[in-house]
Amino acid sequence: MMQQDQVVEEQLQNEDDDDSFFQDIDMLQNQGINAADLKKLKSAGICTIRGIQMTTRKRLCNIKGISEAKMDKIKEAAAKLGDAGFMTALEYSDRRKTVFKIQTGSSELDKLLGNGIESMAITEVFGEFRTGKTQLSHTLCVSCQLPGPGGFSGGKVVFIDTENTFRPDRLKPIADRFNLDHEAMLDNVLYARAYTSEHQMELLDYVAAKFHEEPGVFKLLIVDSIMALFRVDFSGRGELADRQQKLAQMLSRLQKISEEYNVAVFVTNQMTADPGATMSFQADPKKPIGGNILAHASTTRISLRKGRGENRIAKIYDSPDMPESEATFAISNGGICDAKD
């Protein structure tokens, strides 16, 4: 009986930890903001005090029913409850202890990434078709539900699909490899199909609301692929500036969601032939699309290329804390695994 109490106590403690990670927007009611206004903010995907600090005054005013006077009042109340902004590196290092890593299924690839896909960051993989981007996404859907290193307990996944490449049946053999029940595993993956770049952006508001509704339950957000719909909706150089601006807003939203709710964001990206590269004698004349905006927004970028047979080679293209190196992994029926020599 005592042991049972201890388990319940631990669970409650864990729930408290999850709750204290973000401050609920309902706390503003004590500061004199009425419930109807808070409901309007929630419908726009702003559910935490930090979410208000992350939103510009202009965007708050654009929410239906929020006037400039109300916006000022909300911002003021949020500033009282939120932190001042500066902290020492020691305090920040303490806060970074909540960051977790999700295993990829291949120990070589995990080693390359410094233990797996990091939370509170955007990890982008790019490569040509058949380099294993979607297979990696599918494997992460399952491996995210397993307990990992550093006390990671596993959690649910949100999958936003823009290319109609998500296959629940593909997840079943991967679940068999990790000895997971098919139905329970599929029940932990929340799936949405995006049809336009605007729809993709709207889905993120829904995702934020879902993360808020079930705090600490969701651990991973996958977007496969981030650029496909932007490529279709905006064409030619005339619309390029507009496209990049919309893309920047979307990536900023993804980064904020990852920090606000402590989830890992994993996005895949396509490649394009670079006609100017042949002039500079580059070894590889292809480059990821999305330009500098996407390059700066992603925390870690990994390039994938085909190796011999089922083998694929991953290379760190850009990372704030990982050296540039390569790892080889293989694609099997059970998802991403270590390459056999």
* Biggest sheet strand line-up: 5-4-6-7-3-10-11-12-13
Q: Strand percentage, roughly?
A: 15-25%
Tally the helices: what do you get? 14
Radius of gyration: 21 Å
Shape: globular
Q: Span from first to last CA?
A: 51 Å
Low-confidence stretches: 1-19
How much helix, percentage-wise, in residues?
40-55%
What do you see in this structure?
- The protein is α/β, with parallel strands linked by helices.
- Helix content is 43%, strand content 19%.
- The protein has 14 helices and 13 strands.
- The strands form three sheets. It has a nine-stranded mixed β-sheet with strand order 5-4-6-7-3-10-11-12-13, sandwiched between helices.
- The radius of gyration is 21 Å and the shape is globular.
Entry keywords:
single chain, 341 residues, 9-stranded mixed sheet, globular, disordered N terminus
Write a short abstract of this structure.
With 341 residues, the chain is of the alpha/beta class. The chain has 14 helices and 13 strands.
Task: Compile the SSE list and pairings.
Layout: H1 2-21, H2 35-43, H3 49-53, H4 57-62, H5 68-81, H6 89-95, E1 101-102, H7 107-112, E2 117-118, E3 122-126, H8 133-143, E4 156-161, H9 168-177, H10 182-187, E5 189-193, H11 197-213, E6 218-224, H12 228-233, H13 240-261, E7 264-269, E8 271-273, E9 286-288, H14 291-297, E10 300-306, E11 311-318, E12 326-332, E13 335-338
Parallel strand pairs: 3-7, 3-10, 4-5, 4-6, 6-7
Antiparallel strand pairs: 1-2, 8-9, 10-11, 11-12, 12-13
Helix pairs in contact: 8-9, 11-13, 13-14
